Each structure stands twice: as C-alpha cells, then as structure tokens.
Request: fold
Amino acid sequence: MDIKFIETKISEIVAELEKEVMQILADEKLDKKQTNLRMKPLVSAKKILNNALESITMVEKLSQEEIEKQ
Reply:
C-alpha cells in the first residue's frame, strides 16, 4: 500500500476543506449560528479523514511488523 500517496491525497482534501472554512468565516452575511452550522460538516469531515489516515498507517505498520516476524 502506498501510504505516502494516501497521505498526499488526504492532505489535498484537508486543504480544500480549510479553504471552504475560510470562505465561511469571511462571509459577513452569516451570523454565528449559520457559521457554526456550515462549519460542523467540514470539521467532522476533517476529523474523519485524519482518523482514517491514522488507522491506515497503523494497519500498514502492523502488517510490516508481521511480515518482518516471518
């Protein structure tokens, strides 16, 4: 599995999410409640992506350790 490729792609997606967050924060027409409602899915998506990357990395590490034991 190409972990570096996966990390790169997830980083690209996170960067896009952060751009969207900045656009929401810059929108002066939105009140605090609207801003928070629009931010929640983006923040959740970022957490999910980071957790997925962490899980993939852990699985890869465990897999490599198993291969080395044999």
Q: What stands out?
A: Residues 2 and 60 are 9 Å apart (CA to CA). The longest helix spans residues 32-69.
